[in-house]
Design goal:
The chain folds into two domains: 164 residues, D-Maltodextrin-Binding Protein, domain 2 (3-Layer(aba) Sandwich), CATH 3.40.190; 104 residues, Periplasmic binding protein-like II (D-Maltodextrin-Binding Protein, domain 2). It is 43% helix and 24% strand. It contains ten helices and 13 strands. The chain has a six-stranded mixed sheet with strand order 2-1-3-12-4-13, with helices on both faces. A five-stranded mixed sheet has the order 7-6-8-5-9, sandwiched between helices. β6, α5 and β7 form a beta-alpha-beta unit. The chain is globular, with a radius of gyration of 19 Å.
Length: 278
């Protein structure tokens, strides 16, 4: 109950701020504070304090998208998990207006596992990833295609996966570099490979592709004025050189695609999801 009240209070504060400040905008994220999405959106806010952050975690993006459906003057900062065919969100009334960042994926394992590429591609093991429909899930599916002995486990987020990886319940966990590099430093995990945005990794006949990203989504029925307010608000943050420079220090990649180039990148992601039955 306390969390619900807190969320309602934050939404009310964001709405009041936007009403008082015509340059302000509200960005919703579908994960709790402390994760990769939160790190990026806080960086946006640092570059433009007029950005308000609203947390709508849970439901595979359903809560965030439902919030946007009821509040057409806000935007969702996230990754397109809803395109997965088994996503709890079907045909959401949202559209992508800008691709902002890609975070390389790390493949972490407990050092006690002594995991190698050969073991990964031939042995019986499990691979964890944050959630169904994520780009991490898509990488796991590509590995499973090569090795049918791999069992896939949706961990329900990095915070739940960490103890599973530490005690050996997970043989491998796919995680965004922004958080994963800290795990390597703090918990001494091994990293079997790093997969960057649109830069395939090839080993022993298998090619892994990663096309995941974080972007800005708005309601399809948002007015031109509402969309312009959001895009201008975000652009105010990304135009600051500190945005791209800080992303790089975090191990992330500033992409910044709009228009037809953004649409092509999004379609490539959807096509890869469909190729693997998602």
């Amino acid at each position: 109950m306390k969390k619900i009240v807190t969320a309602m209070m934050l939404t009310a504060v964001a709405s009041a701020t936007m009403a008082a400040d015509p340059t302000a905008c509200s960005l919703v994220i579908d994960y709790p504070p402390g994760g990769t999405s939160d790190t990026y959106v806080r960086l946006l806010q640092k570059q433009n304090p007029a950005i308000q952050i609203d947390y709508k975690a849970g439901g595979g993006g359903a809560l965030a998208i439902n919030h946007i459906s009821q509040n057409k003057d806000v935007a969702w900062f996230g990754s397109p998990v809803f395109v997965a065919q088994n996503s709890p969100v079907k045909d959401p009334p949202i559209e992508l207006v800008r691709i902002l960042v890609g975070s390389p994926i790390l493949a972490l394992s407990n050092p006690n596992k002594s995991l190698t590429w050969d073991k990964l591609l031939t042995g019986k093991m499990n691979i964890g990833f944050p959630a169904i429909g994520t780009s991490h899930h898509l990488v796991a599916l590509q590995l499973q295609e090569k090795n049918p002995n791999i069992q896939l486990i949706s961990a329900g987020g990095d915070n739940k996966a960490l103890p599973m990886l530490m005690n050996g319940d997970l043989d491998l966990y796919l995680i965004s570099n922004t958080v994963g590099k800290n795990w390597i430093q703090d918990f001494k995990f091994d990293n079997l490979f790093t997969l960057a945005y649109n830069k395939p990794v090839t080993y022993s006949g298998i090619e892994l592709n990663y096309l995941g990203f974080n972007g800005i989504f708005v309601h399809k029925e948002s007015t031109p004025e509402q969309k312009a307010r959001i895009t201008k608000c975000v652009a105010e943050a990304t135009s600051n050189s500190a945005w791209a420079e800080t992303l790089k220090t975090l191990g992330a990649e500033p992409i910044d695609l709009v228009g037809p180039e953004k649409d092509r990148a999004f379609q490539k992601f959807v096509n890869l999801m469909r190729k693997y039955g998602q």
